[in-house]
Amino acid sequence: MSSGPSADSLGDWGLEPAVDYIERVQRSDGLVPWYPDGPADPWDHVESAMGLSVAGRHDAARRAYRWVADAQHDDGALWATYGEADEDDGAHAGDEPRKETHRSAYVAVGVRHHYRCTGDREFLETMWPTVRDALAFACRQQAPTGEIYWTVGADGEVYEDALISGCASLYKSLACGAAIADVLGHTDARDRWLEARADLGVAIRERPDRFDRTWESKSRYAMDWFYPVLCGVVTGDSARDRIEAGMDRFLEEELGCRCVADEPWVTVAESCELVVSLAAVGRVERAREIYEWLFQWTDDEGVFWTGYQFEDEAFWPGERPTWTGGAAVLAADALSGLSGAADLFTDPLSE
After folding, report:
1. Single pTM value for the model
2. Could you give all domains of the chain from N- to C-terminal order, each with its CATH number?
3. What is the Cα–Cα distance from 294 to 259, expressed in whole angstroms?
4. Counting beta carbons within 10 angstroms of the beta carbon of residue 88, is it exposed (0 to 12), middle (13 to 18) or buried (19 or more)?
5. How far apart are the first and last CA of the chain?
6. How far is CA 17 from the centre of its chain?
7. Which parts of the chain are beta strand (E)?
8. Is the dihedral of CA 310, 314, 316, 319 positive or negative?
9. Reduced to 3 states, what is the DSSP secondary structure of residue 237?
10. Coil, strand, or helix at residue 261?
11. Residue 200 needs a FRET pair 20 to 30 A away by CA distance; which of 10, 72, 228, 303 works?
């Protein structure tokens, strides 16, 4: 792989196979499943679409966002998961159908990202109702203490607990939604979302008691560690300190980032998100070094496996998720400035 400061295209990074795979797996209706004929979820679908936007596959990316608009429910939500192939019933692997706030709202990040890649105002205007309704759904689930509850059941019952990583993602979604509203002149929505974002940020930074109240703590997951930095909730010296405090626990040298601290398993997507988080705190060379490790976890075509179980010395699970390729493209963009949205996650002021 050619890399380093001269890597100024996806080809230089060796990422064209990953993007080709995303586009090949995309269904005719625009949905991007995790793998051919597999399940899907709205958050990972958008992550894949963002990879398409960076790669200049704009028609495919627009089809992906049109799928979100078409699938969105009247309340602004989407199902948390969509089943195998055409079984779009809102459940997967025995899960009860539910509507998760961060998965429904992530379309705001994707739409903002695509606009910054293309400057396509018509696309922004077309997607505005989808973004507006998705964020309205999320904000209706915000507690008086600032956190946003993670899910609503098919029966409308709200599950009153919150996830650090999910709320960090929502913090980013609200920022991107506010930026979209600002461009389009919807000042009331912008101000409302910025207020909700401010309250959410206080909860994440100062109210750990409001998270993981009804289930086991998720702090063993890498996402809980770096997502507040990745999504701009924690910035400056506090962000650098947070990232440095978790490196020994989660980073496996020469391999990547563990998905879970106590499992011998590095995953490419989490490693890519750590790369972007490191870039956000100014550790660009370290980020680049970690990123280059990840290309050992591709198949013969250059498509990324989910991850590597280093005690068993095996790729596990034996899947090549589209969203992993999307995360890899976004990391390359953050390191090399390949698109107009390259600093979306590395500069909180760029949203």
Report:
1. 0.96
2. 10-350 (1.50.10.10)
3. 14
4. middle
5. 31
6. 20
7. 98-100, 151-153, 158-159, 251-252, 256-257, 265-267, 307-309, 314-315
8. positive
9. helix
10. coil
11. 72
